[in-house]
Amino acid sequence: MSVSPFFNPKRDSQLGEMMRDMGGMQRRLMPISGTFNPMTDDSEIMNSNDKFAVNLNVSNFKPEELKVNLEGRQLSIQGEHDVENEHGASRKSFSRMILLPEDVDITSVATNLSNDGKLCIEAPKLEGVCGRSVPVKEASMDHHHIE
């Protein structure tokens, strides 16, 4: 809960500036609408040996209201929807940042929006990046440990 409705510092004071910054951070971290949160409403992140996938329910948004960007390994998903009616105007929005694992082929990231509003973002895993088990051998009396 924000303290802004109960406390209104002067605009040009340091405290006022800090409150504006905190409000901006809060808006970036949480959706503006209290009823829509794509990371809890029908959403999932899957990270298997074959692929990485993010599935979001974005049925409240039109395709042109969605943005998916990739900078390096940082995946950014945003949606913004304006609603106007006889009572006024409001805006629903969300923003999510996901750091893709090192073994994801970032050149093959693809999106798909289904007719029922499910956004799927997925990418295959890189081949040959899999880890391997390294056996632990007991040292014999002839071998010395590394110092």
Order of helices and strands: HEEEEEEE
Alpha carbon gyration radius: 23 Å
How many E-type strands? 7
Fill in the CATH topology of the domain at 32-124.
Answer: Immunoglobulin-like
> How big a fraction of the residues is strand?
35-45%
* Major β-sheet annotation: 4 strands, antiparallel
Taking the alpha carbons of the first and last residues, their distance comes to: 55 Å
Helix content: 10-25%
Principal-axes geometry comes out as: flat
- Structural class estimated from helices and strands: mainly beta
| Mean pLDDT across all amino acids | 78
The CATH architecture term of the domain at 32-124 is: Sandwich
CATH class category name of the domain at 32-124: Mainly Beta
Give an overview of the whole structure.
- Belongs to the small heat shock protein (HSP20) family.
- It is a single chain.
- This protein is mainly beta and 147 residues long.
- The protein has a domain of 93 residues: Sandwich (Immunoglobulin-like).
- Helices cover 11% and strands 35% of the residues.
- The protein is built from one helix and seven strands.
- The strands form two sheets. Strands 1-2-7-6 form a four-stranded antiparallel sheet, with no helix packed on it.
- A hairpin with a 2-residue loop joins strand 4 and strand 5.
- The termini are far apart.
- The N terminus is likely disordered.
